[in-house]
Amino acid sequence: RLKVNLRGTYVIAVLQQKGGVSKTTATLGIGAALAHYRSDKVVAIDANPASGNLSKRINEPSTGTWRTLLADPNLHSYSDFRHHLGMDSSSGLEVLAGDPGDAVLTGRELVMAWQRLARVYPVALLDCGNQMRDDITAAVLSMADAVVVVSTTRYDGAEAAQQTLNWLISHGYPGLVREAVMVISNVNKITPTKAVRNLHEGFERVVRAVHDIPYDPHLVVGGQIEMNAIAPATNRAYLELAAAVADGFTSPVQAARERSATRP
Predict the structure, then answer these.
(1) Edge-to-edge strand ranges of the sheet holding 93-96
(2) Is there a smaller number of Cβ atoms within 10 Å at the N or the C end of the chain?
(3) Distance between CA atoms of 138 and 142, rounded to whole angstroms?
């Protein structure tokens, strides 16, 4: 399932309107599994305009950012792109960092960055911020072939995940919700209450797949993530989660997009 053939490109947006629910960790976990088992290139893009920390969680960060990528007039070969990206050496997942400068990433700049990266990287994951009503989110959803929505075993995390799904439906993206993959991450080492379990059961009736990620002390320290250092059960959970995402590579929705893209 992880190695299934993909025609064209595929963009996966990792969303949730609440912070601290492990969106970045989920992005890296899914991306690392895809990059490790696939022969094509996989890139994760920091799409959080509020100083996202995606590049700080990998062991080979880069001084390049989306800004240096857009300013480079000589992007011809893979090595030209590689100059701007960091990497998780254990999987081969590459990461385009946010920019530490004062200028904030815009939706137009995010689209431009992906248009360039798409020449070399067929699969992209977008690690999104918390704001759902800005031009970044509009750009993300205009590019996304699939969304991954992150929940937790805490009530506030699960409620915010439900609100995220409701927002997507009410703003014209019911198709993305039907094909969405939900991640329930036990980042706080908390057993879900009955109210939380009820919310999680509701997710199963709305999205395509729901996957649990167990508590893992290596993932909650906030520093660099070494995928080889996580527990076997956690590793297996991320493999299954990534496989559920990859199932979308051959879905009827993706096939329709490919046909539309090839029409004269």
Answers:
(1) 86-88, 93-96, 42-47, 123-128, 10-15, 146-152, 181-185, 209-213
(2) C
(3) 6
Q: Can you tell me which residue has the tokens 């030209």?
A: 80
Query: If 0-12 CB within 10 Å is exposed, 13-18 middle and 19+ buried, where does residue 230 land?
Result: buried
Residue 73: is it exposed, middle or buried by C-beta count within 10 angstroms (0-12/13-18/19+)?
exposed
Give the three-class secondary structure for 42.
strand
Copy the structure tokens of residue 58.
Answer: 């990998």
**pLDDT, tens digit (0-9, with 9 covering 90-100), for 203-241:** 999 999 999 999 998 887 777 888 888 999 999 999 999
- Partners of 45 in beta bridges: 96, 126
What DSSP line would sit under 121-153, residue for residue? -SEEEEEE-S-SSSHHHHHHHHH-SEEEEEEES
d(CA 62, CA 52): 14
Tokens 């090839």 correspond to 262
Output the CA–CA distances (angstroms, integers) from residue 92 to 12, 115, 139, 140, 194, in the order listed.
Answer: 18, 21, 26, 24, 40
- Helical segments of the chain, H only: 23-37, 66-71, 78-82, 107-117, 135-143, 155-170, 174-178, 194-204, 232-246, 252-262
- 46, 111 Cβ separation under 8 angstroms: no
User: For the segment 105-127, what is each residue's pLDDT rounded down to a tens digit?
Assistant: 999 999 999 999 999 999 999 99
Q: What would the pLDDT profile of 111-169 be if each residue is shown by its tens digit?
A: 999 999 999 999 999 999 888 888 999 999 999 999 999 999 999 999 999 999 999 99
DSSP per-residue codes, 200-232? HHHHHTTSSEEEEE---GGGSSSS---GGGS-H
